[in-house]
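Most newcomers find our protein records easier to grasp once they have seen one. A learned vocabulary of local backbone shapes supplies the integers on the structure line. Here is such a record, shown just as it appears in the course material:
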Amino acid sequence: MHPLISTDDLMSALSADPHPTLLDVRWSLLGPPGREDYAHGHLPGAVFVDLDAELAAEPGPAGRHPLPDPAALQEVLRRAGVDADRPVVVYDSDNGSAASRAWWLLRWAGHRSVAVLDGGYAAWTAEGKPTTTETPGPGDGGFRVRPGSMPVIDADQAAGLARDGVLLDARAPERYRGEVEPMDPRAGHVPGARNAPFSEHTGESGRWRSPEELAERFAALGVTGDSAVGAYCGSGVTACSVLLALEHAGITDARNPAALYAGSWSNWAADPARPAATGADAG
């Protein structure tokens, strides 16, 4: 399954049998909670999944959004109605940066048919497609989480990849340069990492850029089909958008996926022994 699905294709898929399971993962780093947006309106049949509480473990030394316990994730996904033989479509407000985390987690857990709604809830409603405030009851999905289907790297491996391959930092340029740091104890970036802001994956319309545009963007960052590639961000959320963009561009695929530094900068910066580079250069 391609990692992105259009609003029209999703509309058609919802009338098919079986139709996709819909997960609403609207989320913002600084709030308000996405559940409030869900309560005001969502796609028919969509189940809200809380990124902070259900798609991540408790914050700690491993980072602000560590990977969830597999058994806990399985319970969340089954309650949302997820089955292995039924496609899943996830969406957020617009640019896919939060939905990509759910997409990646489902892929990591072994689900083979997951897509992000291109343009998210904003695109869906802009086209006058149906929404509801009705909340589905608990699902009875049978999906079994089998972690490890997508590669995960730790801080030491991220440091090595920044030197021997390509490590992409998905944060805003000013955070990458170390000019501001609103969330973590230190500013800067992993030495050798290259800045690939997640916000540049989408155009002014809110839809994802074409595979050709993204491939050109990644090529400018030194990514080729032979590159060992990984990504990180502040806490392992928007970095998943980079991983999706790499697949959309045709640079990686399910057989050869890029890696996620799940702890990301929140894990790196918590260790005072690890160096921090600043400025526009990779360092």
In short: The chain has a mean pLDDT of 96. The chain is about 30% helix and 10% strand. Residues 11 and 129 are 8 Å apart (CA to CA).
